[in-house]
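Hey, can you fold this one?
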Amino acid sequence: MDYIFELPFKVRDYECDLQGIVNNSVYQNYLEHTRHEFLENIGLSFAEMHDNGIDAVVFRVELDYRLPLKSGDQFVVKLNVAREGKLKFIFLQDIYRLSDMKLMLKGKIISTTISAESGRPVFSQQLADVFDRYISEQIKLNAFQS
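Sure. Predicted structure:
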């Protein structure tokens, strides 16, 4: 898969459990931080969206743990985007250990947008435009590489 964004990390001691590996819940922090950095990097602000009455929320998380990260491991979270219908915005995120580029985790995070006032699903043209731009660029890139 080609990725549109990546962010490097290093495992900190306190993120590990008694077995000496990263606790399963910590991986979601890595993924979330990467999503936020990506959106900030392209100029999309959750605070601004909220001020405009729309909140982006996680709807579903699918994580496939392949290999464990350990204290001191350096790794990279790579990200791509997709869409399902009008209201589902999908982040495809994979974690690779930098020392050997082994796939450590595959993630699919499905988000949606809701009204900040009612909590009901609502369409966000702003988020749709961003996702559609990157999806179109990805399609063009894949066609060029074929």
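The mean pLDDT is 92. Let me know if you want another pass with a different chain boundary.
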